[in-house]
Design brief:
52% of the residues lie in helices and 0% in strands. It starts with 24 loop residues before the first helix and ends with a helix. The relative contact order is 0.08. The longest helix has 27 residues. The protein is built from four helices and no strands.
Length: 100
């Protein structure tokens, strides 16, 4: 809900923390905060994310992160199947462009 027009600059959201004693983002990182965007995914997690992304640039980016990483035979087969899906997707895109 939006502000009712009074001097409340934050509407229904609480105001920013004040007096928390934080002076920079380093203060948060020093307190054990982990930015999970910077933690590499495991092979299994990457394969799951690839399957959820479907064919396309995001899946290709994810598959690229697996190059040179140790994996089981089953994981290696899943990676090969993922690349095959991407190749079929790219081929279909190229054919559609040629027909257009």
């Amino acid at each position: 809900m939006l502000s009712n027009g009074s001097d409340d600059r934050h509407g229904e959201y609480p105001p920013p923390l004040s007096g928390a004693g934080l002076t920079s983002s380093a203060d948060i990182l020093d307190d054990g905060f982990v930015d999970f965007r910077c933690v590499p995914l495991t092979v299994e997690e990457t394969l799951l994310e690839t399957s959820l992304a479907g064919p396309g640039p995001e899946a290709i980016r994810l598959l690229e992160t697996l190059q040179g990483r140790p994996m089981t035979e089953d994981q290696a087969l899943a990676v090969a199947a993922g690349w095959e899906r991407q190749a079929r997707w790219l081929s279909a895109r190229a054919q559609a462009a040629n027909l257009a």
